[in-house]
Design brief:
The chain is mostly beta strands and about 325 residues long. It contains 3 helices and 18 strands. It has one domain: Beta Barrel (Porin).
Length: about 325
């Protein structure tokens, strides 16, 4: 099967952009310094992204998100929904850790969108041991977030969104519960194919475990997206500022062929060096638009921990 000449010409024109992206990324030596706040936050699973589309573009999505997975990247992006959506995702992570996401969202009129979703992280069966190292019983730790989302648009250029999250972490007989909020904004320039976005994630009170209380993993995301080639191509860049790790930049490229096939790649780089090695920031993937369904796959390198896989689905009603 051969693509029409017009699509082949666009693909060929797109190759230098991809080469420029990867030759300009600073592949530096790893930094052995550990952030002073590393390991001091509760509910760190809240930082794990959802949706294979966004992951395949290096997690640079705060200004580009336009589907139900906006509930993670920028809830203001939910305003772009044109019809109700159902979203499902499976993340085959490392060490038999699995992540599942399910959500539904719908537009209300032209200026409002609402959604509800659940993000679940399971760690499989873990053998318990007492203080002397003797086996006790098998337990199944998990993390859970239940999310309510709302987005409001102001004209065709500006929108705001908010998430309210109930969060729970279970480890053997102990657990911690709490609430958290996300606040997002999105602006689309009317004269240029450029958008900018911002999302303040995991704002909320400390979470108590047994006798101690821990802060949430607050993350600030700021980014931009540039669409070109009649919206068939998109370039994205995000700046990510967590409170428990080094700042990071993420860049991504996506290209759509014949309104059916999407190819994506990206890179996420922590300033000072990626903890799992320079290759651990590489991502890639593809998507297929079939009737009212969008199927996406992402491959993510975690350096020495190996490759991980995400598969997500969106159904439009």
């Amino acid at each position: 099967m051969f693509l029409p000449d017009k699509y082949m010409k666009r693909i060929i024109a797109f190759i230098p952009i991809i080469l420029f992206l990867f030759t300009s990324i600073p592949i530096l030596a790893d930094n052995s310094d550990i952030h002073e706040n590393a390991g001091t936050r509760a509910m760190t699973f809240l930082k794990i992204g959802v949706g294979a589309k966004a992951i395949g573009m290096g997690e640079s999505q705060v200004a580009a998100t336009d589907d139900l997975y906006a509930s993670f990247w920028n809830p203001a992006g939910l305003i772009k929904l044109e019809r109700p959506q159902l979203a499902l995702m499976h993340n085959e992570w490392f060490a038999e850790i699995n992540q599942e996401f399910v959500g539904i969202a719908l537009p209300i009129g032209k200026s409002n969108s609402v959604g509800i979703s659940a993000n679940f992280l399971s760690f499989g069966d873990i053998e318990g041991r007492d203080q002397d190292g003797n086996l006790t019983e098998v337990f199944r730790p998990y993390d859970l977030a239940m999310i309510l989302s709302y987005a409001r648009g102001f004209g065709n250029t500006l929108s705001f969104g908010v998430n309210a999250k109930y969060i729970r972490e279970q480890i053997s007989d102990e657990n911690g519960t709490g609430v958290a909020f996300d606040f997002g904004g999105l602006y689309n320039f009317s004269q240029f194919p450029i958008s900018i976005g911002i999302n303040a994630q995991n704002v909320g009170p400390r979470v108590k475990y047994v006798e101690d209380a821990f802060q949430l993993p607050f993350v600030l995301r700021v980014g931009t997206a540039y669409r070109l080639l009649n919206d068939d191509a998109i370039l994205t860049m995000d700046f990510i500022r967590p409170t428990d790790n080094d700042n990071a930049f993420a860049v991504g490229i996506g290209y759509t062929i014949a309104n059916i096939l999407q190819i994506r790649t990206g890179y996420k780089y922590q300033l000072g060096g990626n903890d799992l090695g320079a290759n651990s920031g590489l991502t890639g993937g593809f998507g297929l638009s079939i009737l009212r369904f969008q199927i996406d796959y992402a491959l993510v390198s975690l350096g020495d921990l190996g490759l991980t896989h995400r598969l997500s689905l969106i159904a439009n009603f």
